[in-house]
Amino acid sequence: MSNVKKTTETVDAKSLDRLSRVLGTFDENLNFLGRELHLVAYVDGVKIRLEGKQEDVALGKQALTALITLAETGETLDTGRVAYCIELAREGRAEEIEVLDEGVVAITARGKQIKCKTVGQKAYVDAIKRNTVVFGVGPAGTGKTYLAVCMAVSAFKSKQVEKIILTRPAVEAGEKLGFLPGDLQTKVDPYLRPLYDALQELLGLETYGKLMERGAIEVAPLAYMRGRTLSNAFIILDEAQNTTKEQMKMFLTRMGEGSKTVVTGDVTQIDLDGKASGLVHATKILEDVEGIAVCKLTSKDVVRHPLVMRIIRAYEKDTERTEKHKRPRPTGKDRVNGTEGE
Asked: CB-based contacts of 178: which residues, under 8 Å, 6+ apart?
């Protein structure tokens, strides 16, 4: 018989609508919460009761309160959102979820409101609003590219800028642009597909086509930026981890009056064959420069399937183990001379 002291806490959902959102289909959200935190969770009217070890119940209460806050915004909740609220609770930051109800980032052509889904995303969007240059660094699925496009479209619609410029280093396929068939647009298309998709969703296919035709939306490989001055534009450099230091410096110095620049990338997916990444270098030397912000999104900001978050974490742990084994161990001579650990 276990001697572990158990406790019970009650969280009030305040309405059946909020309760149903929190519970999810066939109570899958509540069941997920119970499994993750080793709790017994059940519904009593519009209240949810949690039973288990005191520390687990405390975390569960914080996570549920955060979920109810999200439910108040009308957002559809799934196990991914539950996992995120649990992570915030573990970090003692569950109350920060309230910032996600502060405004709409953009509205799609079909009228769907785009809002930040994580606290990290909200900080990223706020940084873009406040700064001239923003680096959005993080793993796949954190929304760094999509949100940058949302902010670009919003700035264009409100006439803060006259054009949107999208660029990306074309190195992923291991081919030079000149070897690929077709004109410049055809060559670059495969590399910028995520940006195209986001623009078409936000503007609608017809408007997007017209803006492309008149040059209000411009797409070009990074190499074609050399020698230009980009004024009154919202400029997005995607997949920036695959720029060299020289390319990054060239790109950042293209910016003219009235422009805003967002640089996005994932430093765990560098394809430069041993060369130093311009993104890694730039975020180190420019972080404290006025007008520049570096936003680092993490696996907690992944808004795809919950499994994606677990996959990213598994790779992060593997990288940490690898780096630990790479560190040189002190030699016997170092130990004798008393220099170990210096």
From this structure: none
